[in-house]
Design brief:
The protein has three domains: about 90 residues, Uridine Diphospho-n-acetylenolpyruvylglucosamine Reductase, domain 2, CATH 3.30.43; about 110 residues, Uridine Diphospho-n-acetylenolpyruvylglucosamine Reductase, domain 3 (2-Layer Sandwich); about 100 residues, Uridine Diphospho-n-acetylenolpyruvylglucosamine Reductase, domain 1 (Alpha-Beta Complex). The chain has nine helices and 19 strands. The mean pLDDT is about 95. By secondary structure, the protein is of the alpha+beta class. The structure holds flavin-adenine dinucleotide (FAD).
């Protein structure tokens, strides 16, 4: 019961409370264990469960006490501070993926790849090009993840989420999906619990072949051991570029109406730049990785330097696709 939550005098006491509720709880967990960049100091409490009712109980306790908190998935799109996060991280690990009448239902803690594989096996078209995007379904909906012409938002019929007080649902239009954007990015205290998707029938064999091609391209670009967050910056809609920049673009650089941020970064000499153990890939200017014992301080400074270079040369403000924790 919410009202029975004692005001803890310490995070340890609160961790105990969550543990008594039935959540799996760890204290002082390094964020480098929770993020693919493998960077970041400690979070005071990490609490997780695959039981939705337990998760909501834990969530309500955190909210009732007004503790700083954050929802997390697989941590593949995050830069965490070297100073850590003085608060509670909650992870909902419900991972069911199933057909429900004409829709595919997925809990937010499912691996995105499991959802992709499920749709291919079910002969449903639209997510197969998202093969090898790491992370969980909740994080994918939050950022409207996508690749090779498809994004998850296009297939979303509805999302169930907790708004801090009650469970709610939004239909496709209500989610306001845009390029790497959704209503959830603008309401950071909402937690996605599950999603239903509608996909048209397709040719499973053709989808399998395309997925295999994409897997090998992606594995070459992002080896599974690479400590990174995919693209650091969003690409740019050509329709929103300053006129002189749009007019001077060489043929072939625009893909699906977008100018890759990597092209701009390449023009300002980003490839191969380094700061401490943080490295810009020599083959892709929008990929930055941790090449050893990287620090978030160096990562942020390098990102800032790249933004300044692009702004000074092109008058364009790059926007991060990655999210920050603890800054
Ligand atoms: C090698 C590599 C390649 C990538 N390629 C692509 C790509 O091609 N296309 C693409 O779109 N992305 C790509 N990404 C980025 C990343 O994989 C996706 O953004 C992914 O969907 C993030 O999921 P996650 O579970 O890791 O989220 P996290 O990194 O854990 O979280 C990201 C954000 O989502 C929020 N969030 C997470 N779960 C929930 C929830 N249940 N409710 C509310 N908010 C939540 C978090 O608070 C955080 O702000 C790539 C990343 C890597 C490392």
């Amino acid at each position: 019961m919410i009202l029975a939550v004692p005001r803890p005098s310490s995070y340890s006491q609160f961790a105990h409370h969550l543990s008594n509720l039935g959540l799996q709880v760890r204290e002082d967990v390094p964020l480098r264990e929770l993020t693919r960049f493998q960077i970041g100091g400690e979070v005071r409490v990490l609490a997780e469960t695959s039981e939705e009712s337990l998760f909501l109980e834990g969530m309500r306790a955190v909210r009732t006490l007004g503790l700083p908190w954050l929802a997390l998935g697989a941590g593949t799109n995050l830069i965490a501070s070297d100073d850590g996060f003085s608060g509670v991280i909650l992870r909902f690990r419900g991972a069911r993926v199933e057909l429900r009448e004409t829709s595919v239902y997925a809990e937010s803690g499912a691996e995105l790849q499991d959802l992709v594989d499920f749709t291919i096996a079910s002969g449903l078209e639209g997510l197969h090009t998202m093969t090898r995007i790491p992370g969980w379904v909740g994080g994918a909906v939050y950022g409207n993840a996508g690749a090779y012409g498809n994004s998850i938002g296009a297939a979303v019929e509805g999302v169930r989420f907790f708004d801090g007080r009650v469970l709610r649902g939004l239909d496709h239009d209500g989610c306001r999906f845009g390029y790497r954007d959704s209503i959830f990015k603008h309401n950071k205290d909402w937690i996605i619990l599950s999603v239903s998707l509608t996909l048209p029938p397709g040719n499973a064999e053709a989808m399998r072949r395309r997925a295999a091609e994409i897997r090998s391209i992606r594995d070459a670009k992002y080896p599974p051991s690479m400590r990174c967050a995919g693209s650091i910056f969003k690409n740019l809609l050509v329709s929103e570029l300053p006129e002189p920049v749009a007019a001077a673009l060489p043929p072939g650089v625009v893909i699906e109406g977008k100018l890759p941020a990597g092209w701009l970064l390449d023009q300002v000499g980003a490839k191969g730049m380094r700061r401490g153990d943080i490295q810009v890939a020599a083959y892709h200017a929008n990929t930055i990785y941790n090449d050893g014992a990287g620090k978030s301080e160096d990562l942020r400074a390098l990102i800032e330097e790249l933004k300044v270079r692009v702004r000074e040369r092109f008058g364009i403000q790059l926007e991060e696709e990655v999210q920050y924790v603890g800054f």
